[in-house]
Amino acid sequence: MAEMLFNPYLELIFDEHFCFLTGDLTNEKMSVFPQWLMDHFKFGDEKIEMMDKTKSYTYADLELPCSPKVKKAFDELDLKIQEAYKDGYEGMATLDEELVFQWSGRMVYGLLYYEMLYERDRLLRLGEDFKLSLALRERFGQFHLMLQSIIEPVSFVGKKPWSIAIFPLKYSADIFSYRDDAINLMFSFGVNGFGFIASLQDAGIIGESQKDILDKMKGHVLHPIQFEELYARFHYSDYILQYKPEFNIESSENGITIEALPIEGTAEKPIFGFWDENIFAQLLSNYWSVYGIEREDILRFQKPPLSFLENPYSKEFIKPETITLPF
What we know:
single chain; alpha+beta; 2 domains; three-stranded mixed β-sheet; 11 helices; 16% strand
C-alpha cells in the first residue's frame, strides 16, 4: 500500500494545483501556520526568511495546495489542539503524541515545501535541473508518509519515529516563541503555560539522550531561557548524530505500520559524535541573544560552560524561580 500513496519526492512534484499530501488535483489551499494561532498572537504580517536569507514571506502568505479531505482533517486537528491549548500544559500533556507530531509536522512540512519551491525556481532561472540527494529524498519522503497518517491508515507501532517533550513554561502572556529547522525536521513552540520540543524523525534517540535532564525538569515550570537551552541541546544533538534513523515500514491490506528501529553505536563509532563546547556555545548564544548573552559569556575562563538547566558542579537542576532574568 505504501507504493500506492503519493510521494512527491519520487518525481519532485511541487505544484500549486496538486495537493501537497495526496497529489490530488485541487484549487483549494490551507495556511502553513494555523489561522487561529496567527490571529491569537498577531504574527500573520510578520516576515519569515528562507534558509539562504534572500527570500522572505509573511507568515500569512504561506499556503499549501490541499484537497478538501486534507483541509478538513487538519481543521479538525486544529480544533483539538486549540481546545487543549485553552487548558495550558495540562491540556497539551493529555494529547496523544501522534497529534502533536501531525500538528507540528504540518508547519515544518509547509516550510520545507516552500524551501523546495524556492530552490526549484532558483535553479530554473539558471537553466538548471532541480535535484535532491537520494538521502534527502528518502528522508523527506518518509516524513511525508508519516504525515499522511492524518488521512490514511498509517499507524505507528513500537518505538515511535520522533522525540517530543512537553513541559510547563512561563512566558509573558502575549509572547509566542517558535523555532524550526525544516531541513532537519525540528520544531519548538513556547507560550505562557507550556512549551514543547519535537525532533520529528530521529527514531526517538535524541529524547533518550536528554532523558536525564527531562526527568530533572519534571514538576517545574521552566523559565524561557531554560526552554531555549533545552532546544539548543536537542538541535546540537541532531547535528552530531552519527547514524541515520531507520524505520521498518510494512504494508498490508489493512494499511501501513511504521516502527523506528533501535540505533546502536559501537566503540569505534558511538551514536553521537564529540560534543564540542565551542560549537554548542555559538549555537546557544544565538538563542540567548535576546538576553544579551554572548558566546564569551557561556565559555568562561577556567570555569565550566554557563548553563541555566544544571549546576555545572553538582549537576542538580536549577530551579526556575531562582533565575532573575525577565520572561
